[in-house]
Amino acid sequence: MDASAVTVGVSLKMYFGQARTLDWSRRVADLARTHQAVTSGLVEMFALPATPLIPPVLAAFAGTGVGVGAQDLSWADSGAYTGETSGTLLRELGCRYAEVGHAERRRLFGEDDQVVAAKTAAALRNGLTPVLCVGEPDRVSPAEAARRCVTELGGLLAAADQDGAPGRVVVAYEPHWAIGAPEPASTDHIATVCAALRERLAEDACRAGSRVIYGGSAGPGLLTDLGTEVGGLFLGRFAHDPDAVAAILDEALALHGAGARAR
Ligand SMILES: O=C(CO)COP(=O)(O)O
C-alpha cells in the first residue's frame, strides 16, 4: 500500500517529441532526487510519457521513486491485437501505472464504459495501478456531478471486481469541460465530487490505499486552494515547465509536511 500523503501525476499526452520528453524527464528527475516532498516519501509522483518513450523515461527516473506509466493499455494481455500495448508488456518494461478512460480517449477514440472497465481490469491483473479517469461531460451542479461520477466509478470497477483483481487505484477526477480550459473547476465543485468518490472507494475493502486526485487545468496554486480536500493533482499543460512541478511540490510540503495526511 502507498504510504504517501499526496499524489502528483503528470500526463505528457502527445505534446512533446523525444528530445523535449527526455529533457523534461531529466529535469523532473533531478527535482525528485532533491526535493524534500519526494525524498521524504510525502509525495507519490508519476509521469506518463508517450508509449515509445517509456523505456528512456524509466531510465531517467531510475532511483528517484517517481513511477512511470502509460497513457493507455490494451484490455487484452497478448495475441492478435495490432497496434495495442498490453499491461503485461508495460509491467515487464517496469511501468507501475496505466491511465485508463481519459476524456480524450472517450471523445476522440470512441472508448465507452465497457472498454474502460476492461482496461481497468487489465491494469489491475497485471499489477499496474490504474489512473482511472472519471468526470462529467457537461457543466452540472457539484451534487449532480458527484452522483454521476460515483455511478461511473462503480461501473468502471465492476469488471475488475468480477475478475477478483484487487489493488489500489488512483481515481483522477477530471470534469471533461475543465480539461484544456483556461482554469480548473471551482474548489467547491472539486471538493464535493472528490469527497463522494472517496466515500465510494471506502466501500471497497480490496481497494485499500486508493486515492482521489483532481485533473483539468490544474497548476501551481490549486493544491494550496484545495488543502486536504483532494489527494493530489493530475497535471497536463501546466506541468510542462519543470519549475511549475517544483512549485507544486513546495505546496505539497507546506500543506502536509507537518505530518498531516490528505484523504
Ligand atoms: O487531462 C488532463 C490530465 O490528464 C489535464 O490536462 P490540462 O491540465 O492540460 O487541462
TrEMBL record:
<dbReference type="InterPro" id="IPR000652">
    <property type="entry name" value="Triosephosphate_isomerase"/>
</dbReference>
<keyword id="KW-0324">Glycolysis</keyword>
<comment type="subunit">
    <text>Homodimer.</text>
</comment>
<comment type="similarity">
    <text>Belongs to the triosephosphate isomerase family.</text>
</comment>
<keyword id="KW-0413">Isomerase</keyword>
<keyword id="KW-0963">Cytoplasm</keyword>
<dbReference type="InterPro" id="IPR035990">
    <property type="entry name" value="TIM_sf"/>
</dbReference>
<protein>
    <recommendedName>
        <fullName>Triosephosphate isomerase</fullName>
        <ecNumber>5.3.1.1</ecNumber>
    </recommendedName>
</protein>
<keyword id="KW-0312">Gluconeogenesis</keyword>
<dbReference type="Pfam" id="PF00121">
    <property type="entry name" value="TIM"/>
</dbReference>
<comment type="pathway">
    <text>Carbohydrate degradation; glycolysis; D-glyceraldehyde 3-phosphate from glycerone phosphate: step 1/1.</text>
</comment>
<dbReference type="GO" id="GO:0016853">
    <property type="term" value="F:isomerase activity"/>
</dbReference>
<dbReference type="InterPro" id="IPR013785">
    <property type="entry name" value="Aldolase_TIM"/>
</dbReference>
<comment type="pathway">
    <text>Carbohydrate biosynthesis; gluconeogenesis.</text>
</comment>
